[in-house]
Amino acid sequence: xxxxxxxxxxxxxxxxxxxxxxxxxxxxxxxxxxxxxxxxxxxxxxxxxxxxxxxxxxxxxxxxxxxxxxxxxxxxxxxxxxxxxxxxxxxxxxxxxxxxxxxxxxxxxxxxxxxxxxxxxxxxxxxxxxxxxxxxxxxxxxxxxxxxxxxxxxxxxxxxxxxxxxxxxxxxxxxxxxxxxxxxxxxxxxxxxxxxxxxxxxxxxxxxxxxxxxxxxxxxxxxxxxxxxxxxxxxxxxxxxxxxxxxxxxxxxxxxxxxxxxxxxxxxxxxxxxxxxxxxxxxxxxxxxxxxxxxxxxxxxxxxxxxxxxxxx
Length: 313
What we know:
Elements: H1 3-30, H2 36-55, H3 59-63, H4 68-105, H5 108-116, H6 125-147, H7 155-185, H8 191-206, H9 222-253, H10 256-259, H11 264-278, H12 284-305
Helix pairs in contact: 1-9, 1-11, 2-4, 2-8, 2-9, 4-6, 4-7, 4-8, 5-6, 5-7, 6-12, 8-9, 11-12
């Protein structure tokens, strides 16, 4: 596969991952009467159970390709990219509000791209500056749009929410970088199998969330529980199984400086799904943010197409 076709395939996988990950944002809106921890626990328990069922028939074959350190890597990636990230993000929304959380989390592509630019042979940060500025502008627009909503949280709660959002940003950034490096190191393990192994690790971690159900006193009827089960199953399969598989495939095809920008597709599709669910057109700020995100991805792709050095005549 040529360099250009590799990038095209990687970008397609990144867009597909964002399309499926966007359903994870739609899920809470469809079961708004349930606590976020309930959806998180059910999603990752289902993700872990499906992953275990798919990986068990080939366990011996896969296990022979792994070292003991790889199991610690899987546990860490499951925590940083799934369990811990979701808990921190949910806590940030509850404590600090959507505005602050969306603004902080919106800088994920910037953080991953900046760190990825330190890798050997990476596109220099100076050539990625236009893309990073456009991405930042899009995040600011999303934050300004959310700021228009009324807030009932205190200054102390907002401060705690900011810490949680920052922790979520650090958690998922470390996952994106660590996962990319693990896939680059484990040539004999397919991206699909690595996703299933991460799912098994995440499923065991989700068991630790079960005691938190004791603090939830809401009561639901059979219809609500049936809807919750369908949404949890759908999010687990579409976002965690399919979406993660596309992301892992993309991580092997693209450098981190370009892979970081692929996270923006999740924002794009989440916005589209949200608008469809709410049956409305985007506001002015949402439309501007949408354009900024598209331009950010486009300029980042262009920066990777242009040769890093020009041979002297």
